[in-house]
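Subject: for your reference before the review

Hello V.,

The reviewers asked for a structural picture of the protein, and I figured it would be easier to keep everything in one thread rather than splitting it across files. Below is the amino acid sequence we used in the manuscript, unchanged from the supplementary table.
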Amino acid sequence: MSAIVRGPRVSFGAFEVSPASGELRKSGIRIKLHDKPFQLLLALLEHPGEVVDRRQLQKRLWPQDTFVEFENGLNNAIGRLREALGDTADTPHFIETIPRRGYRFIAEVAPKSSTQKRVSSQQWIIGAGIAIVITVAVGLAIRLDRAKAAPIRSLAVLPFRDLRTGTQGNYFAAGMTDAVTTELARLGVSKVTSETSAEKFQNTKESVPQIARTLGVDAIVEGAVLQEGDRVRITVQLIRGSTDQHLWAQSYERQMSDILALQDGVALGVARAIDLKLSPGRPETSDSRKRVNSAAYEDYLEGRYYMQKRDDEYDRGKGYFERAIQLDPNFAAAYASLSQYYLQTERLSPTEALTKGREYAEDALRLDPDSTESHLSLAYIYFYFDWNWPSADQEFKRAITLAPGIARSHRWYAAYLAAIGRNAQAMEEAERAVELDPLSVDAHDGLAKTADAAGQYSVALTESQKVLQLDPGNPIGYADLSLIHCDRAEFEAAVDDAEKGLATTHRDPAFLGMAAMAQGHLGHITEAKNLVTEMKSDATRRYVSPLFFAAAFASMGEEKEAMDALERGYKTHDGDMVNIRGHEFDRLHSDLRFQALLRKMNFPQ
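And here is what came back from the structure prediction:
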């Protein structure tokens, strides 16, 4: 072990370094740091703003090692130091990499006077060893803070930083963030902001109080992930949103095969730090989770990364989930994700999607009866494909009970409640989804659709416009606006919105149907029929929902053709059939075939 360099205390940012004792602290809380990374920090602090080249570092810290051992040691030490500081190579706040030369400490460094007011160990405990002093001091500091500050009931987990070097993409750190967020929701935190909203603040320059205000949470969880071989370390810290005060920090490390227990451990640590009363039935320790094949888990994370992108790369997720299942046939989460892939892909007919989606959801539940995602998949199947309304209601409630803080569960449950006419409750669920995921296009889209079904058109318009504010040019916003304008009998505006959607989606059949419906209501029958002809041509190449045709025919007064299309939707178990009680089919309500169809779909009275 190299000798500890003697010298005065120095500070930078929220950190304080004591060369004499070999300690690094952040806001008074000691950060665990091994000897080599600490000595590396001292070497950089001695020359702030200057480049410390690799040769200098080798002579000082690895004088007896070979070049290869030095390179490995330096890379490892830099990774661990950045992890402790919450820093990254891509967006450094403290340590800047100078390619092929060395490193430079870029933050402002100030000496720390020994007479400066600070908390001493004697104030906390007398006659104990240094390890006990630190533990008690940290615990007491947290308790004192809670005594004078409001309790923490809501959290946002910001995207974890990936401290691995030489890796492509950030799927690993993104997966860890998602998993810890989900587990906190399962533990019973009343509000855990969804990762889709929290990810907006990846590499942000905004302060913690600004982020907390935007997301409407009491505290922020920050973290970093470092994978070295078959070991994974996650370092997390809890920060009060209103004051930017660091309340708690901890590091967790396990083998990749114990990654599920590692994620649970991190979430349990955060839960204890905020004095959370765990949900009934939740384990007090993280050792009850099954082990998972390391390669299978990495495939699963990469599959989730692509599936959540919802763009041209969406379908890449399927192959990763399939390979994860091949590597580990008992990995429930991979089955659940593959089920959701089939239920949401637009490349298959409803029959094909339903068969596979049901199969994998049932496999996931067999392996993990408390899988929130699997119960949600079954609820989706019962609702959109089986029209088994009681079972759908039961599964939605089960998914929400298991993890009340998952925004997607509330959003889909709102769609179910709106379809069966329970509009007041539907609005509550849709608003809850927005509360949990305030910067999510999907959440605001869900509230727009729910408000439209409830006849709350001003709310629906506002939410549709929020979709476009969050993601300008997103076709989802134009789809919502077009349907809302149709329901308000503002058909020219509906045509304009549909045309914008056609331009941004390369004439997607959904927008062809909306444009045809609006043109039909305007009495522009020739234009409407031309759009229907284009839809028919599109249907020879891919699956097109019969409801698009039905809405267009109904607007033109062609009721027989509209009913023929609806009955095709019934036979194929088209998921859009749950919306047949919408305003676009008002003209068909007196048709005996329409009434018979409602009975066959078992709509609740």
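For the response letter, the relevant points are probably these. Residues 130 and 259 are 31 Å apart (CA to CA). The domain at 149-273 is CATH 3.40.50.10610 (Rossmann fold).

Happy to draft the paragraph if you're swamped.

O.
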